[in-house]
Prior knowledge:
Elements: H1 31-37, H2 44-58, E1 68-71, H3 76-87, E2 92-97, H4 104-114, E3 119-123, H5 127-141, H6 146-162, E4 167-170, H7 174-177, H8 192-198, H9 228-234, E5 237-240, H10 241-244, H11 249-258, H12 283-294, H13 298-308, H14 314-324, E6 331-332, E7 335-336, H15 337-342, H16 348-358
Parallel strand pairs: 1-2, 2-3, 4-5
Antiparallel strand pairs: 6-7
Amino acid sequence: MNQVENIRYCSKCVMPETKPDLFIDDEGVCNACRAYENRSVIDWDTRKSEFIEIIHKYRSEDGSNYDCLIPVSGGKDSTYQVITMLEHGMNPLCVTATTDKLSKIGRRNIENIKHLGVDYIEVSTNPVVRRRINKLTLSQVGDISWPEHLTIFTIPVRIAVQMNIPLLVWGENSQNEYGGPAADSENNTLSRKWLEEFGGLLGLRVSDLIGQVGIEKKNLIQYTYPTNDELDAVGVTGIFLGHYFPWDGHNNALVSQAYGFESHPKIVEGSVINYENLDNLQMRIHDYFKYLKFGFDRTNDWCSVHIRRGRISRNQGIELVKKYGGKFPAMYLGVPIEEVLGDIDLTRDAFEAICDRFTNKKLFKTDTRGNLIKDANGNLASSFELS
């Protein structure tokens, strides 16, 4: 049986050193906490002025085209993005790359964005091919939502090229909020390089899919990023609102709720909040694999966000992580995992076998034969302690 793994945690939040791109300095503080500390020295009035200058530059002078394109999912953040751009007098085109398995509340929140008063396009990729990719990438890189996390970047940019809309407005730069390489933590524009580094591809290229499970090149048009020449011809660029305004998902949720955004009636499974990841019924599986690989999940993420903002103490965060984190994803938003797996023709036993294959056995206890130890609900016994 494994001994307790000595994982180092940030002394201010509850993020472990096992998180990719997160670094803990000599004082025991992670770079995500340092990035938040640096907010206090940022001149936000100057940043806002820079934002206004940028959107003025890209505003359609004669009203013959859209002022910007906003990629939206219907979630709290994209709703807030739309509200912000409308408040600044912009005429956006909102674009949704349809999620892997859209929930009922997710559909209602998409409809709510439309009713804010915007033109809207939704692009749905071939669902037969999509399910094949879901199953393939779950097995190959441990990410059932790989196609969604790619198309949320490729589809809006493709439409921006096709409709000659140079400016894309994104929400946060996750490398700033949740940690990342110092060279990229202040990156406030989206580029092809950004997609390749931080778009969640996990080392798998779109071209790698060709020839697998009956997938042909013609099936991958919407998964393919525009060429540099196409981007340059339109001058496509992107900005992160989180670079110009202090980004806060909790505040975004409160603002969005005032404009019709619907949160879940109770805390979402695998989290400590009720207003995030409400659209995709596969997201609990996606987050669970983060736990299997690295020993943390959305409970760590959100507790750390709240700790940095003084909403809870670190000790309270530790207790919440222990209570809600790391659970087997048997249910999500009231939908059993068997229904979600059934869509990609996968049994629960086959799913658990894939889980076991991606589980880091340095982080979880095994028996004398090397088999992972689980309780009656399928929850793993961790060999690390958060303290």
